[in-house]
Amino acid sequence: MAAKKQGKKIYHLNIGQPDLPTPQAYYDAIRSYDARTLEYEASPGMPVLIDAVRKYYKELDVDLSQDDVFITTGGSEALLFTCLSIMDPYTEVIIPEPYYPNYTTFVHAAGGVIRALPTNPWEGYRYAKRERIESLITKNTRAIMITNPGNPTGVVLDQQEMRMIADIAKKHDLFLICDEVYREFCYDDKFGVPTMARFDDIADNLVIVDSVSKRFSACGARVGCVITKNKDLQAALLKFCQSRLAVATIDQLGAAALYDVDHKFFRDCKAEYQRRRDTVVSCLRKIPGVVVEEPMGAFYVMASLPVDDSDRFQRWLLEEFDDNGDTVMFAPGAPFYETPGKGVNEVRIAYVLSQENLERAMEILARGIARYQREVLVKE
Ligand SMILES: Cc1ncc(COP(=O)(O)O)c(C=O)c1O
User: Which atom of ligand 1 is nearest to the CA of 212?
Assistant: First the structure.
């Protein structure tokens, strides 16, 4: 990359990967593995891990049987198998935009079509509006898919909003796919540890996508799961699980050990991310022309910048700009949207750097915006 060749130091705000240490329990579990033959395990997952997941959900007041849980290679495979199981060509799924860009790949791989539920920065990207959601439902709609807490927006639904979306799914007989991989990262106590899985009355509609990646700071473990009580969907998911035989044995054992970590781990991680969020938001608010609402969850901030095009601005930051040899990278906003032309001046900032590095990164961003406005925008 040109910026690296020029010897610039790049502060990466573009990657959605936690930087906090993975609990030691993971490494201990995989080091102690000593089976003579590394065999395939059961296609839906190893019982020891399924039981660990069930115990975790029990603490959230959710009762799951063994059959309700399918262990997958990350939340990614959970999403892919879900889409492949429930969609036919041209069936539609309603997704609030901006959304995690890989959803496009999963939905399209299944032949589905995304119907984007529009939001905007000045409403803090909140999407739980009954009329807006219902107006997108057609005879081809198969599912509503949400990320709660949201990536890239950090939006967290409150209880009433969750209930309202659950009611819509029930009334229109739609699947409700809830990607809850950021569940532990909610920065207001009123949210607790939110999950749609508590709504028993929509058990047949509900699909929960989950993962150890963010919860345990363990993206490389590649372990997630999909949870549903819908028997037809279980049968379809089982076929996909069988087709790829099994998830990696040692990864599953490591993940099972993670579920035993003390709750203090979650409290500490959350407190750290919350401090960082506060830093990023207060720095962004000081930059004239930036539109940003305080995100309530996950570890991302979506903001609208006073630039013409955040992708062009990003390239300029890398190729033409530095502040004492330093520059920043964020994720430009447009790829998080289905609707062409939306998100062009928006960015997603992942606060997965240390407090000190974040402060420096935000200082560089502020200086970069000011210089870009003076040297590029004014001259055009
Ligand atoms: C919203 C969301 N869902 C799912 C995933 C998939 O993560 P993994 O496959 O590591 O579980 C990610 C990863 O960033 C994500 O942000």
Answer: 11
- In percent, the amount of the chain with pLDDT more than 70 equals 99
The tens digit of pLDDT for each residue in 188-229 reads 999 999 999 999 999 999 999 999 999 999 999 999 999 999
Closest CA to 77 of 172, 197, 213: 213
Q: Compute the distance from residue 358 Cα to the ligand 1 centre, in Å.
A: 23
Mutate to test the pocket of ligand 1, among 146, 181, 215 (most ligand atoms within 8 A of CB): 181
- Please give the full DSSP string across 127-183, using - where no structure is assigned: ---HHHHHTT--TTEEEEEEESS-TTT-----HHHHHHHHHHHHHTT-EEEEE-TTT
The total of structural domains in the chain comes to 2
Q: Examine the domain organization and report whether 105 and 219 are in the same domain.
A: yes
Q: Cα dihedral sign for 305, 133, 96, 221?
A: positive
pLDDT of residue 210: 98
Tell me if residue 276 falls in helix, strand or coil: helix
pLDDT of residue 304: 95
Q: Which tokens sit at 336? A: 């998080």
The ligand 1 site (C-beta within 6 Å) comprises: 16, 74-76, 100, 147, 151, 179, 181, 211, 213, 219, 224
Note down the domain range covering 38: 24-258
> Which parts of the chain sit beneath pLDDT 50?
none
Examine the domain organization and report whether 284 and 253 are in the same domain: no
